[in-house]
Design brief:
31% of the residues lie in helices and 22% in strands. It is of the alpha+beta class. It is flat and about 40 Å long.
Length: 78
């Protein structure tokens, strides 16, 4: 059985991811905050969403802290 994302679909996803990456980096630079945000790197503030093949949320990281794990909210408001 073929994976639901074929080679053409994978290539399109890669282009979208690259566009998001470039936009995030550019906005961070324009805001003068590129040392803090705009890319995923050690020491930078991070917001990250991880999904599975069926587009179910598996994990969310907000400002470097785990917020959702396997679809369950684990970080409450501080």
């Amino acid at each position: 059985m073929e994976h639901p994302v074929n080679k053409k679909g994978f290539a399109q996803i890669c282009i979208v991811v690259k566009d998001i990456e470039l936009a995030a980096k550019k906005w961070a630079e324009l805001l003068g905050m590129d040392s803090e945000i705009g890319s995923i790197a050690e020491g930078k503030r991070a917001n990250l969403l991880i999904i599975d093949d069926a587009v179910n949320i598996k994990k969310v990281i907000l400002d470097g802290k785990d917020a959702v794990e396997n679809g369950e909210i684990i970080l409450k408001g501080e």
